[in-house]
Design a protein that fits this description.
The structure holds 2 protein chains of 2 kinds.
Chain A (H helix, E strand, L loop, with lengths): L1 H13 L1 H39 L3 E4 L9 H5 L22 H10 L3 E15 L2 E10 L1 H7 L2 H4 E3 L4 H4 L3 E5 H7 L6 E5 L5 E10 L4 H6 E5 H7 L8 E6 L5 H12 L3 E3 H4 L1 H39 L1 H10 L3 H36 L19 H28 L2 H8 L1
Parallel strand pairs in A: 3-8, 5-7
Antiparallel strand pairs in A: 1-9, 1-10, 2-3, 2-6, 2-9, 4-7, 5-8, 6-7
Chain B lengths: L1 E11 L5 E11 L3 E5 L6 H8 L7 E6 L2 E2 L5 H11 E4 L11 H12 L4 H14 L15 H12 L6 E5 L7 H18 L2 E5 L3 H4 L4 E6 L2 E7 L1
Parallel strand pairs in B: 3-8, 3-9, 6-7, 7-8
Antiparallel strand pairs in B: 1-2, 1-4, 4-5, 9-10
The chains are: A alpha+beta, B alpha/beta.
The structure holds adenosine-5'-triphosphate (ATP) and magnesium ion.
Amino acid sequence: MRLLLDLARGMLARRRRQTLVSVTGVALGVAFFIAIASLMRGFQTYFIQQVIDVQPHIVIKDETRTPPAQAAELAITDGAVSINGVKPRDRVRGIRASGEKLDILEAMPGVAAAPILTGPALLRYGARDLSVTITGIDPQRYRRVANLEKDMIQGRLEDLRSAANGLIIGSTLAYRLGVQLGDTVIAVSPRGVTLQMKIVGIFHTGLVSLDQTQGYALLKVNQVLQDRSNVVNQILLRLDDVTQAEPLARRIEARFGDRTESWEEQNRNILTVFVIQNAIMYSVTGAILLVAAFGIYNIISTVVFEKTRDIAILKSLGFTEGDIQALFLLQGAIAGLLGAVLGCLLGQAMIEGLAQVRFATETPAGNDRFMLAQDWRIFAVASGFAVVSAGIAAVIPARRAARLDPVQIVRGAA
Amino acid sequence: MTLLVAESVTKRLAEGVTLVSDIDLRVDGGEFVAITGPSGSGKSSLLYLLGLLDRPTSGRVLLEGQDTASLAPPALAALRLARLGFVFQFHFLLPEFSALDNVLIPIRRRGVLKPAEAEARAMSLLGALGLADDARKLPEQLSGGMRQRVAIARALANDPVLLLADEPTGNLDTKNAAAVFDIFARLAQEDGRAVLVVTHDADLAHRATRRVHLVDGRIVSDERG
Ligand SMILES: Nc1ncnc2c1ncn2[C@@H]1O[C@H](COP(=O)(O)OP(=O)(O)OP(=O)(O)O)[C@@H](O)[C@H]1O
Ligand SMILES: [Mg+2]
């Protein structure tokens, strides 16, 4: 209603300075919210992006979520059976029928799958011994689920095939062993197999744990080294649509029975930290906006108090209680809206300021600046929150205004 | 034609104070009624009851034959907007709006006229009250008599059948007060409205066509001519 809007504007314009103070309060709340939210969101998105980039989206493991039922439990299904000290059955561990499962997985649209066998080994070069984890891969498939190719600093993934027992190792590992491309090391597995392996590639991820202890060989070679022929102990999946990871993992686990973990499950602890972070952020900025809302409450109350005569005359002219209430809610909303607009501009300025900051650190991932999310939804949430809280803050004085009895006011003024 | 009827209207406050009791009154279109009485006799209280700003504790008020006792607050507000006009002792103009905008408020609230028609109507009302040149001024830029005339223009904005004024000349000098009463007389005479004016001033009361005298919340005399 244009008339109410004009009246609301006129009443607020009269208290310009006080209006400005309340509007600034709201604006600061909105701006801080925007700045903090885009910092947090930016970092979280960056982090998740890294995780999604580096890790497979789904890992199928050679274990089950619950230990297999024991014979006694199967025999006496309705009895109270307690079995202690269960020793694992000495079976060959590994994903059963991995070939068929691989076929099924690869038939799914938007899914790339790679079988691997990981196992420990000791690398010996001259007098140096270092224990490592060797992952046996099929380069053709593995390149579709992992970024190893991108991280290669010497040699290529295909070179694994060129040598008899090719090995790709991390940069730190190479440095500590003192080996270079083309050198031959001796690998010894816990099962006692010894292989002469030729270094055909060196990678550098920036993640110490990988660069220091990882090695890659052909799947077949590692199966020989680990003395586990034809065994695959993990299948790694990469999806076109990461958001499908969790539901797909559940479907695969239900179908195959093998424990299947999505990247979300594998990083649950960190994702939980994000939830807590977000909760803290929302409460802090919520508190700021609460203070801002008190500012709005204050100005609307003041206007109502000062405008009792005008309220009385409007009512005597035929304005309803609803009109009067709307008039003051509108004033709250105007103050909230002004604050939101100002806050968005201020928030944008803060983001741009933060984006100029550079850290003097040398992190492996090369991020020397704040990761900032530029998401219109942050602005929308902040503005919406400001306008709504301003509206709510105006409700109490607006209702008081609506209930004023014009007769008493007119009497009092005469 | 009978515009307004009060049937044994009584107003008592919760504390037991009686403001007016047993008021019976009929007012026709074209009548200019002055309500007089000593201070505290209930003149204002009666005007608020007849103007549907207040509800009687017992008895009823009929406007144009319609019983207002059963109406909900929004319906009463609608009647005040379309059929009634109020003028108070204090002008009660909204200080941040010009004379013209003040007169436009009830017209716009009613929403029947288009913006251009509304403005034309407001201007003609102000013009008829001798304020054509002051329409764009803020209330604080006007004299007391001018403000009261703007308030009258605002009360007439939606062409009410009944105009109620509570000591509208209380803050005015004799010349301005007489001018306001002339306006009221003209409004009753020429447009067939009913005009009810509370006044202390016996001379002014004699310009009205009828004088209702209150004492202690009761009508003690009702004379015409
Ligand atoms: N809310 C109230 N509480 C107590 N007494 C009240 C209240 N309102 C009015 N009165 C009393 O009721 C009586 C009638 O008041 P009212 O204002 O109608 O008189 P009035 O004739 O208009 O007087 P005045 O000429 O001084 O304006 C007065 O004695 C007044 O003090
Ligand atoms: Mg009075």
